[in-house]
Amino acid sequence: MTTLETHYKKIKDLHHEEAVAPGTGLCAGCGGLEGLRLGLKELGNDVLICNAAGCFTLLSVYPFTPLKGSWLYTTMGGPVPAAQGVRDALDIQLSRKTLTEDDNLSIVVVAGDGSSNDIGLGATSAALHRKLDFIYFCYDNEAYGNTGFQLSASSPYGSSTQTTPSVKFHPVGAELNKKNLFDIWRAQEPTYIATVSPREPIDLSNKFAKAKNLVGPRMFICMSPCPTGWGFNPKDTQLIAKLAVDTGIFPIKEYFEGKVIHTKQPRRRLPVEKFLETQKRFSHLFEPERKSDVIEQIQKTVDKYWEPYE
Amino acid sequence: MGIDSSKRLMLTGNKAAAWGARLAQVEYVPAFPITPQTEIVETLAKWFADGTLKGKFTNMDSEHSMFMAAGAGAATGVRVFTASSSQGILHGMESIYTIAGWRTPMVVVNVSRALATPITLEPDHNDIMSVRDCGFIQLHAETCQEIFDFILIGYKVAEDPFVCLPVLVNMDGFYLSFTREPVLIPNEQKIKKFLPEFKTSQPVFKASQPMARASAVFGGSTYTYFKIQQDLANRQAEEVFLKTSKEFEKHFGRFYDVVEKFNMEGAEFVFVMSNSFSTKGKDAVLKLRRQGIKAGLLKLRLFRPFPATAIADALCGHDNVAIIDQNLAPGMGGITYPEIVASLYDRKNRPQNILSVIGGLGGKDITEGDFLSIIEKLKSSETKQPFYLFGKKDEENFERLQHLAISNKEAFQS
Question: Is ipTM over 0.90?
Answer without folding.
Answer: yes
